[in-house]
Design a protein that fits this description.
The chain has 293 residues and is of the alpha+beta class. It has helices at 3-13, 60-70, 73-87, 118-121, 154-157, 164-178, 209-219, 243-256, 287-292; strands at residues 26-34, 37-45, 58-59, 107-113, 127-129, 132-143, 146-151, 181-185, 191-196, 223-229, 232-237, 269-272, 277-280. The relative contact order is 0.10.
Length: 293
């Protein structure tokens, strides 16, 4: 079964697996813009919408990957039904009033791939950073199961007096506070992993100027940044590393390990400790010695 048929059958058959109370709900598939591309979102819309009641949203491409393992469509429909029965109608007091202007202390930054998010950038406030892009989220809650948040759109800030510059300023105050940097040391100081305490969207710590400088002190000077996903980056001592090898490692990892929606960059960056700045390493770096040799 191809994805197009799967996408058609899920809303058509889901009520076979739901209790009668859900038979008045409307199965709906919408295309929503997410980081690194659009996704097909499936949900059940109740006949009367309460803005404080949560409606679970499931992404059909993720469900299709699970379906491909054994092609058990009924099993997938049973899974969807269990999730809908468990979480539909969960009350979240205050959700209706959770607006950007009233919760500026919950605005955070996310570093994402620029090239894969052209369409998203047209609809959201953003700030270019090197060859990447910073978008912003409004965090509702952080739990053991993950982060409940929404991407801030232009419509959400319309009429608030907030613009991209002010949102970025607020985000750079809030993000290190809500998601502190976490350093994972390797076997020696030549290689470390930087993320945040949640482990989600941790590559955004590249924007934490104080933590980046502390990392330079820890490593004894300049270091290369290899962004293995939106969730973390590797810091590798610049004194003992050929960036050419890092380009190869990053390209291989992006193709074979990193999920498309979590890809951040194919670029290697360098943190220059004296200037306290990040620069792009030219893609030909590392080839010079090979050519001259």
């Amino acid at each position: 079964m191809d994805y197009a048929l799967f996408k058609t059958l899920i809303p058509q058959r889901i009520k076979e697996f739901l209790p009668p109370v859900f038979h008045s709900y409307e199965p709906r598939v919408n295309t929503v813009m997410k980081v690194n591309g659009p996704k097909d979102a499936f949900c059940l819309i109740p006949p009367e919408r309460d803005p404080e009641v949560a409606i679970p949203t499931l992404y059909l491409d993720d469900l299709y990957l699970e379906f491909q393992e054994d092609e058990d469509l009924d099993g997938i429909l049973e899974l969807i039904a269990r999730i809908m029965v468990t979480w539909s109608g969960t009350r979240m007091p205050g959700l209706a009033e959770f607006d950007v202007q009233g919760h500026t202390d919950r605005i955070v930054a996310n570093l994402v791939n620029a090239g894969m998010n052209h369409e998203l950038k047209e609809n959201v406030p953003h700030t270019d950073f090197l060859d990447m892009t910073v978008i912003y989220r409004l965090v509702h809650s952080v739990t053991e199961d993950g982060i409940n948040s929404a991407i801030i759109t232009n419509d959400m800030i319309d009429g608030t007096g907030l613009d991209a510059k002010e949102i970025h300023r607020l985000a750079m105050e809030n993000t290190p506070r809500l998601f502190p940097a976490k350093l994972i040391e390797g076997s020696d100081k030549e290689v470390c992993v930087m993320t945040n305490e949640s482990g989600l969207c941790g590559a955004t710590t590249m924007l934490y100027s104080n933590d980046m400088q502390r990392l330079a002190e820890h490593m004894g000077g300049d270091y290369f940044i290899m962004p293995t996903s939106i969730h973390e980056f590797f810091a590798v001592s610049a004194d003992k590393t050929d960036p050419y090898n890092l380009f190869l490692m990053l390209a291989e990892g992006n193709h074979t390990i990193t999920r498309p929606e979590e890809l951040l960059s194919y670029t290697i960056y360098r943190y220059r400790a004296k200037e306290g700045k990040i620069s792009i390493v030219p893609r030909l770096a590392g080839f010079r010695e090979e050519k001259n040799g």
